[in-house]
# Entry
Amino acid sequence: MRRTSWGTLAATALGSGLLSWVVLDVLTNAGVAPQPPWLTAVVLVAVALWLLLRGRAVRRMVAGEDSPMTPLGAARVVMFAKAASITGSLLGGFFAAGIVVASEHAQAPLNQDLILSSGLNVLACLLLVGVAMVVEGWCRIPPEDDDAPPNSSMTLA
# Structure
């Protein structure tokens, strides 16, 4: 399995943001302004913290230290980290589009609340993506033999 690239995450966020911008613009012009809940940011931060804790256990296991992590558990953590980075990019694009659409009429109190809640959610998405990329890096294991090429380190999966 290959590590998630920053380019893939940026393209995912951009695509999600453009599509969301079109949909949110149509909805807003129709009189419907979807308000993202504040709880979304809390959940995203909680997921990032959980992933960070599980990633630290994998990091200790890879380093040969005592860890409650099993190889199967480590594979699950690295897959969850990959999924979290992509999900964070998708949601980040959506919430960024909400900021763009609401800022067209930023004087309205409802739009000010929308900008605030969307901004908080974008920050939580950035935290999730950052933690997921760090954990993916922690899950890399070095090659076991000296005959392997120098750039052939593997990721658990």
The first strand starts at residue 140 and ends at 141.
